[in-house]
Structures are given as structure tokens and as C-alpha cells.
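Extended Data, panel c. Modelled sequence:
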Amino acid sequence: MKKTAVLVSLAAAFFAGASVAFAQATGAYLFDVMKEPQFQKAYAAMLTGATHLPSWLREITGKGNYVATPETPATVGGIPYRLFHACKAHDCAGHELEVMFSPDAAKAYGLLIDGDKPRRWFGAPDADQQTALAKAIEE
């Protein structure tokens, strides 16, 4: 997964003090939008009923220990969505989440890759949304 290499580079830039300028130049990160109540609510609703979640996934709504890349836009069925990628800190490869928010941030959909476990979908994405999430997580 190409994003892992990007995430490692971003983590290095973060610790070098360059993350603020980089974030302003490229767009919001998941940790930026999770400061907004509507995104927190949609994210929490997406995970409602999910069991056996990795701890880093639950921590995304707070000051979680994860790595993120800037958002990317995606249009699904003519609707513009905001896609965000995150992974477990210090263990990105194979521990990744792609989350997609509706334009009004009222609904979130997610795809989790957690080691050798089967892929997990959150928020009941339809087939087109699943395709967009799967494509994004593999880029």
C-alpha cells in the first residue's frame, strides 16, 4: 500500500516541525475535522455496534495515537465526499482506516484493514461507496 510510504514521510515531516505548513498547503487531516462536533458524531455513529475494535480506531475522536494523510475528494453517485486515511502509529502497514464523510458530515463510512483479519466495513456503505473506499485505501 503506497499510502504507508507517504504516512512514514509525513510522520518524519511532523517530527521535523514542518507539518503545520504542509497541512495548510494540502488540506485538512482527519485530526483537524475530528475537532468539529458533526464529524465526531458521524464517526461515532459509523462505529455504533462494532465490536473488537483496535484501540487506535476508538481514539480517533480524541487525541489518538495515529498517523493521517491530507483529505482527498471523491465523487460517488454524483455526490462529493471527503476521504481521510489513518493508520496505527508505529505500525501503519496493514493497520489502516479509510473514512469517508458525506458533504454535510452527517454520515460517515469506513473501511478497516487490520492485519490478517478480513476487511471490515462501517456505516453500511453501498456498493459504490465500498468501491471508492477500497480504491482509496489501496492508493
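The chain has one domain: 2-138. This feature is highlighted in the accompanying rendering.
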